[in-house]
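Appendix B, Record 12. Input sequence as logged:
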Amino acid sequence: MTPMSTEGEQTTATASRAGSAERGVAGRLSWGLADQAASSMSNFAVGIYVARSLGLTAFGVFSLAWVTYGVVLNVSRGPGHPTPLVVRF
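Logged structural output:
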């Protein structure tokens, strides 16, 4: 025999699932933002360190190589080639 539920109980269960889904989205969003912030700060720190360590010409060469790497990386991760960490099952 299955227990009977009232409409109020069903509404509460639906609201609970919706709240849980919103918390899940907020959690994933906050981790993505934290990851991007850490990546940006570390890239900035490496750039400052290299700029202080190298001369003007060598830093220019490094900067061109770094920008080229970034462009190639972004093109390779375009919409036609999703990264495995983004694929959801």
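The chain has two domains: 9-53, 55-89.
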